[in-house]
Design brief:
The chain has a seven-stranded antiparallel β-sheet, with helices on both faces. A hairpin with a 2-residue loop joins strand 5 and strand 6. It has three helices and seven strands. By secondary structure, it is α+β, with helices and mostly antiparallel strands. The longest helix has 16 residues. It has a single domain, classed as Dynein light chain 2a, cytoplasmic (Beta-Lactamase, 2-Layer Sandwich).
């Protein structure tokens, strides 16, 4: 288990279905088992923080943009939610199956703030 896995375990233990930490270059630092494929990850994550994000494709299905607030962006697809938190060198992605995106924001933002303060 890498040091990054503890953050994924923390998120999934709080009821988040899938969690991953990805470098700005698109490399996977850690992810929960069966983390879904984010199409064009390297391009999509930075684009999520643009002025007019269109959404993100996950396993070929589009999550639509809900809101952008400081260092995180919220997306939704039906009953599923997704939060992307931007760090200095990476992104944290939390996906909740049958979970409203607001349920994901607290835990993901808290870990994101901690890692950002540590320089990541």
């Amino acid at each position: 288990m890498s040091g990054w896995d503890q953050y994924i375990t923390n998120l999934t233990s709080q009821g988040i279905s899938h969690a991953g930490i990805f470098g700005a270059d698109g490399s996977k630092w850690a992810a929960s088992p069966n983390f879904p494929n984010i199409d064009n990850l390297k391009e999509e994550l930075p684009r999520a923080f643009s002025a007019q994000p269109a959404g993100i494709l996950v396993n070929g299905e589009k999550y639509i943009f809900i809101r952008n607030q400081d260092n995180f962006v919220v997306f939704r697809k039906g009953a599923d939610g997704m939060v992307v938190v931007k760090l200095n060198q990476a992104y944290i992605v939390s996906i909740g199956i049958n979970q409203k995106p607001e349920m994901l924001v607290g835990a993901t933002s808290k870990i994101g703030e901690y890692l950002k303060n540590c320089g990541y």
